[in-house]
Amino acid sequence: MNWKRTLGLDNLSEEYSFARDESTGYTSAKKIPDHWVPTTCGYCSVGCGIEIGVKDGRAVTSRPFAAHPVNRGKLCPKGLSEHYTLESENRATYPLLRQNGKLMRIGWDEALSVMAERFRATQKAYGPEALGVLSTGQLVTEEFYTLGKLVQLGFGTNNYDGNTTLCMASAVSGYKVSFGSDGPPGAYEDMERADMVLLIGANLADNHPILCQYLEANRNKTLIVADPRVSKTAMMADIHLPLKPRSDLALLNGIAHILVRYNLIDREYVDGHTAGFAELERFLDRYTPERVAELTGLSEETIFKTAVLYGRAKAGFIGWTMGVNHSTLGTATVNAICNLALLTGHIGRAGASPFSITGQCNAMGTREAGFASSLPGYRKFESAQDRADLAAIWGIDESRIPIKRGLAYPDIVEAAVAKRIRALWIIATNPLVSYPNQDVLRNGLSNLDFLVVQDGYHPTPTTELADLVLPAAIWGEKEGTYTNSERRVSKVNQAVAPQGEARSDFDIFLALAEKLGCREELYSGWTTVEDAFNEWRRVSQGRLCDYSGISYALLAEHGAVQWPLTEGAAPQRTSRLYSDGQFQTPDGRAKLVCTDWAPFPEQPTGHYPFVLNTGRTVEHWHTRTKTREVPILERLSPRAWLEMNPRDAKRLGLRSHDSVDVVSRRGRVRAVELRLTEITAPGQVFMPFHFAETNVNEVTQDAFDPISREPNYKQCAVRVERSGANA
Ligand code: SF4
To answer: Which of 103, 104, 132, 469 could form a disulfide with 412 if both were Cys (CB 3.0 to 4.6 A apart)?
Structure first.
């Protein structure tokens, strides 16, 4: 007890004293740091530069890193309050092992020995493929590179994937099919330099808020936003296309039809750099404006206007995010976007790009350096040449490199349900909130013999189920690099010591390799993350994602630079892929792909009459593990809600702020606050996906894109009931 306070002698003057800070002005004295540490934001893929203010060894404030090329002196609410994530009460601070049903504290040495022994024993009993690994987009690139080697070569399983499959796998697959390789061709600057910007399923204002300044800086553009909701981004548009759920592919084919029929294409580009035009032309016959108007709910005039604006633009930009990717037709829709860019030659030039804006801070790092859906450096599992190249760099026998990718995320879950996967290692992700149709996942996890969860936070719904919890250092506590959506590599720096006994993921991987006896072979001479980065530079050399010219010293000098940068080359301000019209296919030509529209898998019925859409809100991040502990973000958005059109609510006798249940064939989310708004069209409802307490993934559907394996989060059939009505 504070006696001075009880006796009225302590008026909290220290707590509430103010002082003048050179950068922020008159401010709380305890928030004035001793020094600033430059780094990169650890939330989303925009990749803003940020500085952490450190006082007496603690992170006390955050501010924009003014010289950083991405954010130009601005941060969104999450970035501005990011330092709060470091000392939140739910940090994992020491290893825990389940003993007699309870998680008990143990030491690191024992934790890693138990993990190595249990994983080895499982693989001995059931085969190497009985081990699965689910990783993340949150680690630094050096850690992804290290982890990939450990999983594929150390443990010898290729059943390795990341939560990135829940997020942008369709963009990856689509780029691979159309251009022969992953890799977003454009840059953020293109949003400033395009005269026509089409955003499809991309609510930048909530999901990538700092990118809005690129749009706002461009006074000469026409901004068209295709979204079933009148999202905050749709409110910024010159033209909003409120298309029916999952009719984007029909719209894109309809635009392509008009471009071809009215000769709004760049024939020279098509002839010189693409393959498949004749077939595409025939295929597009069926996407007449009349039919597309019927499928999308948009007028023929609007579809024409969109096509003509894009076709006649000097530089046309198409950006997309999860509205496209979260679908059983995600890959096909990405191909249809790439078709438009190829037909018009809107690629590889300033302002002209088909551009996937990805999700997590380092989803790009795992796409490039990871060893999950591709071999490192965008090499292909199925290419003998790629496998031979990699084996030569690593000095290992080629036969150790898998000839095909292992199970993707949903297939690992299904394999756990079927007891083919017996042990699972989950790293920096929280599937017990984020995975669709939670019931299937719970079933799979309950079948496991051993579950290890490595995370910076505990408890989370997923760590609570673990047999072993490994506490990891997070953003601000470790070093490395992130790569953002425009291929810009940015340094991540340590500002404070990890909490408790937490260790960086890099340290954990090396220590585990030591236990397995493969450290010397896989990571000879490595002691720091820079050692991993330098090996990765060699592995990427000569590839599309060439990092060989990027060093830590160069990043310190320039703040952040884009790949590709070959050794010895000087960094440019902005680079674009495919400027020479040469693609990563065997004949160097990009593919025009015929992709047919189909209705989404679960259509509304009399019993489940609404189409449920899910998404984010600007205040929170993913499963809210971090942001619910940040006071200002949590106060701004403390609970989930369900958006419904007032006409539907009137029919159901519901009013704003009523407590409702959302029910699908798979489950029920109870006691959600109803919000009535014209943002959502009649027949549709929307709910954010961040909230474990009212988890929308109890009702979402486990249907997946057949190529990318990304879930169809965006549309499923539900009904809405007043809470307690049928309890
Ligand atoms: S826009 Fe993304 S990267 Fe930038 S501050 Fe916000 S969360 Fe961080």
So the answer is: 132
Give the closest residue (by CA) to ligand 1 atom 5. Answer: 79
User: Token pair of 179, please?
Assistant: 């251009």
Q: Answer whether 46 contacts ligand 1 (Cβ < 6 A).
A: yes
Identify the structural domains of the chain with CATH numbers, from first to last: 19-85 (2.20.25.90), 96-167+361-372+406-540 (3.40.50.740), 177-357 (3.40.228.10), 610-722 (2.40.40.20)
pLDDT confidence bin for 726, thresholds 50/70/90: low
Number of neighbours of residue 525 by Cβ within 10 angstroms: 7
Q: Establish whether residue 185 lines the binding site of ligand 1, counting it when its CB lies within 6 angstroms of any ligand atom.
A: no
Q: Which residue's CA is the closest to the ligand 1 atom numbered 4?
A: 48
In which element (H, E) is residue 316 found?
Answer: strand 316-320
Q: From residue 135, how far is each of 370, 417, 429, 442, 668 by CA, in Å? A: 10, 19, 7, 18, 28
Pocket test for ligand 1, best of 62, 78, 206 (most atoms within 8 A of CB): 78
Q: Comparing C-alpha atoms, which of 229, 195, 228, 197 is closest to residue 212?
A: 197
Alpha-carbon distance of 129 to 118, in angstroms, equals: 14
Nearest atom in ligand 1 to 77's CA: 6
Residue 157 and residue 151 in contact, taking contact as beta carbons nearer than 8 Å: yes
| Structure tokens belonging to residue 139 | 């680690």
560 lines ligand 1 (CB under 6 A): no
* Cα–Cα distance, 677 to 256 (Å, whole number): 34
CA pair distance 351, 341, nearest whole angstrom: 12
Instruction: Taking residues 423-445, report their average pLDDT.
Output: 97
| Helix-helix angle 330-344:169-179, to 10 degrees | 40
Convert the pLDDT of each residue in 199-216 to its tens digit: 999 999 999 999 999 999
Ligand 1 within 6 A of 359 CB? no
